[in-house]
Amino acid sequence: MTIGDGEIWGTMRSTIFLLICLSGFGSALGAEEMRRISVSGIGEVQVEPDRARVYLNAQAEARSTTEARRLVDEQLNGLAAALEAAGLEEDDLIAGQFTLAPQYDYGGVRRRFLGYLARRDVQVDVDDLERLNPLLDAALGEGIEGFQFIEYQTSREAELRAQARELAVADSRRQAEELATAYGTNLGPVISINYRNTNSIPYRIGQEQMVGMASFSAQEAASMPYVPGDLSFIDRVEVVFELLVD
C-alpha cells in the first residue's frame, strides 16, 4: 500500500498545526509565569524579658555511690527550702537527669580510685526577675556550684509571635504592591504561600556569642551584672502574587 502526495501533505499540515498549537501553548504558559511576582516578608518584634529560666546542677563526690547520691539530694532539698525564702515555690524547681560515674587519678603509674561523682541537673523558673539574684545566692548557700546559664524569657511569647507573623504578612504585601506599581501592573490574588515557622532568638547571660552551654561558678554568676538584652521574635513568609496587566 502506498501513500499519495495528497495524503503526505495532509499529514504534514496536521503536524505543522500541532507544532504551532504547542508553541502557542508554551508561549501562553510563559506569559502566565511572567505575570507572577514572588516576595519574602519578614517581621520582627523585640521586647524586654520579664522572666528567666536558670540551669544549675547539684554535684557531690564521695567514696560510695550511696553517699554521693545522699549529698546531692541534700543539696536539692536545701535549695527547695531556700526557694521559699527567695519568694519562689518548690514547684518552680524541676530536677532533671541524674548521673553517677567513678572518678580516677591517672597521675601515677597505676590509676587510683577517688570515689564517685553524682550529679543532677536542675532547672528553676523565675517569674519575677527581682527574685533572680536571691535565687543565685540561695543556690550558692546550699553548695551548688554548677551554674550553667540563664535563659531570659517573656510571658507574652504567644502574643509577640502573632505580632511578628502579622508584620511579616504586611511586609510581603507592601513589597509586592510597590514592585507591581513600579512595573506598571496591578497586584492580583495570592497564588501560593510558603510560611516559615516563628523563630525566637533567646538571650542567655554570658552567652551572646555561643550557642551551647557555658560553665560558671555560682559565685561568679551571683556577682555578674545582670542586664538582660531584648528578646527578638522573627517570622518569615514567602508569597507569590498574580500580576494583573491592563
Fraction in beta strands? 35-45%
- The tally of helices reads 5
Order of helices and strands: HEEHEEHEHEEHE
Mean pLDDT over the residues: 78
Output the structural class. Answer: alpha+beta
Rough outline: elongated
With strands numbered from the N-terminus, the spatial order across the biggest sheet is 3-4-2-5-7
Distance between the termini: 57 Å
Q: What helical percentage do the residues reach? A: 25-40%
Radius of gyration: 33 Å
> Sheet with the most strands?
5 strands, antiparallel
Uncertain spans, ≥5 residues at pLDDT below 50? 11-23, 25-29, 206-218
Count the E strands: 8
Q: What's the short story on this structure?
A:
Helices cover 38% and strands 37% of the residues.
Account of the protein in words:
The protein is of the alpha+beta class and 246 residues long. 38% of the residues lie in helices and 37% in strands. The protein has helices spanning 5-34, 65-85, 132-141, 157-182, 218-223, and strands at residues 36-47, 51-62, 93-105, 112-126, 146-153, 186-201, 203-204, 231-244. The model is unreliable at 11-23, 25-29 and 206-218 (pLDDT under 50).
Task: Write the SSE topology.
Layout: H1 5-34, E1 36-47, E2 51-62, H2 65-85, E3 93-105, E4 112-126, H3 132-141, E5 146-153, H4 157-182, E6 186-201, E7 203-204, H5 218-223, E8 231-244
Antiparallel strand pairs: 1-8, 2-4, 2-5, 3-4, 5-7, 6-8
Task: Tag the structure with descriptive keywords.
five-stranded antiparallel β-sheet; 8 strands; about 40% helix; alpha+beta; 5 helices; about 250 residues
